[in-house]
Design brief:
Blueprint (H helix, E strand, L loop, with lengths): L1 E9 L8 E6 L7 H11 L4 E5 L8 E6 L4 E2 L3 H16 L5 E9 L2 E10 L2 E8 L5 E2 L6 H7 L15 E5 L1 E7 L3 H6 L7 H4 L7 E6 L9 E7 L4 E4 L3 H15 L4 E9 L7 E10 L2 E20 L1
Parallel strand pairs: 2-3, 4-6, 11-12, 13-15
Antiparallel strand pairs: 1-2, 1-17, 3-4, 4-5, 6-7, 7-8, 8-17, 9-10, 10-11, 12-13, 13-14, 15-16, 16-17
């Protein structure tokens, strides 16, 4: 069986930045084992398999795999695949607005895509659910050991380590400085008691000290248990991060936009657009978006 595929860089407006994504087209005839094997072969954070939608009014059904497991939902595959399908529908280099409706394990996602002749497509979608707190984390000294840091480098202002989830659960660890977050790493046997044993996808580290003045947070995300030593841009974690921001920054009623920078330590700079809708003092909705750039196309033998 020969299938076509595309690769894109997501959450960036230029090639060789952002988070790489492989999209395999016409994947309805593949078994679960074949999809997992192909994802291992691409060895990217995620590989998407495009299947016919169960509802004919929708654009496609997606299955999303890391090199070691299937995910019910992920942000950069949603953004990148929607942008690709919109370009395939309208043609590259055209001005158009498209609505791409994707069926994923977590539910149906409506993705708005803006196509412009002078820039890569921008895709944005409302999160399928509002993030919720998801368990507790070990003490700070255990977390610090898992990241190769010292306890005093964990936390800033009123921000403390917490877990939040939207389908996937992440540990959110505030880091006191940009210098400390640059030194963080998956620290051997200390990682498991800090993060693996909590059943989390990974650890999302963040600080307010940023590379760009237009960014609100500088982040890194480690997910070795999902086959991703470090991720250049993590949309599903950014959705969950909205819960952290709303909790600790106590945002007032209204709509708030934040730009998150990630992947700089990997030389894959990424910018994630995050929009929070606050009703009263409660987080009522989250929107995430970013640009995507086509990189390659080809065929794969299965």
């Amino acid at each position: 069986m020969r299938l076509s595929y595309s690769t894109l860089d997501v959450f960036t407006d230029r090639r060789f930045g952002g988070n790489p994504l492989a999209v395999v087209h016409g994947a309805g005839g593949l078994t679960d084992a074949q999809m997992q094997a192909i994802a291992r072969e691409f060895n990217l954070s995620e590989t998407v398999f495009v299947l016919p939608a169960e509802n004919p009014a929708h654009s496609a059904r997606l299955r999303i795999f890391t090199p070691v497991k299937e995910l019910a939902f992920a942000g950069h595959p949603t953004v990148g695949t929607a942008a690709l399908l919109a370009e395939n529908k309208f043609g590259p280099g055209r001005d158009a607005d498209a609505l791409i409706v994707l069926e994923e394990g977590i539910g149906t996602l409506r993705v708005g895509v803006r196509l412009k002749t002078d820039q890569p497509p921008f895709a944005e979608f409302d999160a399928p659910k509002v993030p919720v707190e998801a368990g507790t984390l070990p003490p700070v000294d255990v977390l610090a050991a898992g990241l190769g840091l010292i306890p005093s480098e964990i936390g800033f202002e009123n921000h403390k380590p917490v877990c939040y989830a939207v389908g996937n659960a992440f540990a959110f660890v505030p880091i006191a400085s940009r210098e400390a977050i640059a030194r963080a790493r998956v620290n051997g046997s200390h990682w498991a008691p800090a993060f693996s044993q909590q059943g989390l996808v990974g650890a999302y580290l963040y600080t307010r000290q940023c590379e760009h003045t237009t960014s609100s947070f500088h982040v890194r995300m480690f997910a070795p248990d999902a086959g991703v030593p470090e991720d250049p841009a993590t949309g599903s974690a950014a959705v969950c991060f909205a819960g952290v921001i709303a909790r600790f920054d106590r945002l007032p009623h209204g709509t708030h936009r934040r730009t998150i920078e990630q992947g700089f330590e990997m030389q894959r700079p990424s910018l994630v657009s995050l929009v929070l809708h606050i009703d009263g003092h409660a987080l009522e909705g989250v929107r995430i978006g970013g640009h995507s750039v086509r990189v390659s196309e080809g065929t794969i033998e299965v």
